[in-house]
Each structure stands twice: as C-alpha cells, then as structure tokens.
C-alpha cells in the first residue's frame, strides 16, 4: 500500500461542509487503487483569527512543507475583512510554495441545467490558466493623507518577465497537448498602459515557438461577452491573476453553477506542495444549511490525485461525477435539485463502489 500525506484546511463557511465529502470520495476511489491517505487537519480559519489574531500560526507555512499536497475548502467570513482572510492564509500559501499556475477547468456536464441556449455537453470544455502569484494581486502601494479630503490610495500590479513567460509557457504547452490547439489570451491593453501591452508582447513572442497553435489576443471586456455568447469557441484561456479569477467564475456560471468548478494551485516543478480547492468561496449565506454542492471540492480532489501521479483515481472520480449528475435526484439546489451536501457526496461514493 502506498500512502499520500495530505494537509486539510477546511477553513470557513461551507468549506467545512464540502471538505468531508471530498475526503469521503477520495477514500472510496483510493481504496480501489490500494492507496491510503494520511489526513492531517488544520483548523486555520476566520474563527482562528478571532481567537489568535492570525489566520494561521507563524510557522504555518513551515508545517505545510511536510505534505504531498494541501486540500483547502474556503476562506473568508463576515467579521473578518476579506483582504485579511485571503492575505492571512490562501495567498501566502500560493506565494510561498510558488504555486504560479492556477488551473481551472470549465465543462458542461450532462444533467446540469445550462443557462445558455442550445448548448450540449461537450460544447463547453476548456481551461482557464490563471497567473497565480503576481499581477494585480499585490500588496504594493499605500494610502496617504488617510481620513482627509486629500486621501490618495495607490495599488501597483507586478508583471515580471519570468512570471509572465512561465505562465504563458504552461498555457501554450497545455494548448499544444489538446486537440483544438487554440489559445486565447486576456488583457486590457487599450486601457492599462504598461503591464497589459507587455503581456501581449510576450504572448506574440512565445507564439512564434508554437506555430501549430492558433492564438487569439482579446481585451477582457469582449472576451467575457464571448464566454457567454459562444463558450464552445474556447480551448485554453490564459490571463493575469485578476482576469483569470474573474473568467474562472464566469466560465462555470455559463455551465450552470460555479459550485462544480475546481481550482488547482500548482507548483509544476513539484519543489513545494500544490494546493487544491473549489473555486467557490465560503458562501456564508448558505453555510450551515447542508445544501452546498461538494462537486467542486471532489473535482479538486481528483485534480490533486492527477498531480500526485494517480490518474486512475482522477478518472474514477470524474466518471462517478458524470454518472451521478445524470440523476436529477442527486443534484443540489444550485443545479435545480433538492439533494443535500451529504446526499450528493453519498451518491458519488455509491457510484464509485458500483
Ligand atoms: N475556495 C477557496 C476560496 O475561499 N476562494 C474564494 C476566493 O475569494 N478566492 C480568491 C482567489 O482565488 O484569489
């Protein structure tokens, strides 16, 4: 028996409800492949912040280094400003462990009601590749004349050549591995003077190394319109930290629900543990009601196993998801059903054993 060591941070809100279902599904799929998990739970969250003034202990990142991967639910809860909860937990992990790729698949599944007209499963199947450690997510800048009429706030975005080129390379390689071989890049270079024309220039330069790939360079505004009007057009979409984040909520919303969407924060060199989470946040409005959809977390778990070298566990989980989604009785309310979080989780486990 092989064992993988996973650090679990369920976090806040519905994070604490969906993570147990993810673990249940991973256990069931792992058993079939003679794999064991060693789960170590960390109660780092906004509640911890209230008690200790920190989202995680001072040596939190050091503790996480010992694991093969990190499985995270969600962070953020009313009472703790969002920038404190993100900069106290999620963002330091992404940055310290150089998880510079945020890979977010978008797929329309049979059985999930699609809000767009005339779309069939298979029509929507693409990846958003989000730069994950620099760009607009920066703590650089500041406030002056605070509290006065002259108050000035500035916020800097950071785009390094190293950081831009490595995420573009990942996206080009991914596009190269796919049938359509089509890469779309998101910027706003008519309005954002320095960083976005720079990104466009690096895309055009790298495109020369990948002559088989069709490359489209979009402004983010028309790109979002195209996501809604013709999502079947896309294959691999690459964007900065902020644009990638926005696109990877919009994409799954076009497939019926963002709750199904996974997010893999990857350190491709495997120098550090990578982190896997659902795209969705802690959703305080539905927390405690047992109605959260656990599929984003289960799919994130599948991506974790793919990353750790167990593609058969990934496929088992994805096949189970595909089968369960065809049964309306198993769907949670965001997908038009009435099943609870645990009922949908149980349906996945049952399907794996089937
Ligand atoms: N699933 C983790 C979570 O809570 N995500 C919500 C969120 O706002 N994440 C910010 C980000 O991905 O940059």
From TrEMBL:
Full protein name: D-malate dehydrogenase (decarboxylating)
Domain (Isopropylmalate dehydrogenase-like): residue spans on this chain: 5-348
Keywords from the named record: Manganese, Metal-binding, NAD, Oxidoreductase
Enzyme Commission number: 1.1.1.83
SMART domains according to UniProt: Iso_dh
PANTHER family on file: D-MALATE DEHYDROGENASE [DECARBOXYLATING]
Single GO molecular function: NAD binding
SUPFAM superfamilies registered for this protein in UniProt: Isocitrate/Isopropylmalate dehydrogenase-like (SSF53659)
Gene this chain is encoded by: dmlA
Cofactor(s) the protein needs: Mg(2+); Mn(2+)
């Amino acid at each position: 028996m092989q064992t993988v060591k996973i650090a679990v941070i369920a976090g806040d809100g519905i994070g604490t409800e969906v993570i147990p279902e993810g673990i249940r599904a991973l256990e069931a799929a792992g058993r079939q492949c003679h794999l064991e998990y060693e789960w170590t739970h960390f109660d780092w969250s906004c509640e911890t912040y209230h008690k200790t003034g920190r989202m995680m202990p001072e040596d939190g990142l050091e503790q996480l280094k010992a694991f093969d991967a990190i499985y995270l639910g969600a962070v953020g809860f009313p009472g703790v400003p969002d920038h404190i909860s993100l900069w106290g937990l999620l963002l330091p992990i992404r940055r310290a462990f150089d998880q510079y790729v945020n890979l977010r698949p978008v797929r329309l599944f049979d059985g999930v009601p699609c809000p767009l007209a005339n779309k069939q499963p298979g029509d929507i199947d693409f990846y958003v590749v989000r730069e994950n450690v620099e760009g607009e997510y920066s703590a650089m800048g500041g406030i002056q004349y605070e509290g006065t009429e002259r108050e000035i706030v500035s916020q800097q975005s950071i785009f390094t050549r190293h950081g831009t080129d490595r995420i573009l390379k990942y996206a080009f390689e991914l596009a190269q591995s796919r049938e359509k071989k089509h890469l779309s890049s998101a910027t706003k270079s008519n309005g954002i003077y320095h960083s976005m024309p720079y990104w466009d220039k690096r895309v055009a330069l790298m495109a020369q190394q990948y002559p088989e790939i069709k490359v489209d360079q979009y402004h983010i505004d028309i790109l979002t319109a195209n996501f809604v009007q013709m999502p079947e057009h896309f294959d691999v979409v690459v964007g900065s930290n902020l644009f990638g984040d926005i696109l990877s909520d919009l994409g799954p919303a076009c497939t019926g629900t963002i709750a199904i969407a996974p997010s893999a924060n990857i350190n491709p060199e495997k120098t550090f543990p990578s982190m896997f989470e659902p795209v969705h946040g802690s959703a305080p409005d539905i927390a405690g009601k047992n109605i959260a959809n656990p599929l984003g977390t289960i799919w994130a778990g599948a991506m974790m196993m793919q990353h750790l070298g167990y593609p058969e566990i990934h496929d088992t989980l994805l096949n189970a998801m595909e089968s369960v989604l065809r049964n309306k009785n198993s769907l949670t309310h965001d997908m038009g059903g009435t099943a609870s979080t645990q009922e949908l989780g149980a349906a996945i486990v049952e399907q794996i054993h089937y």
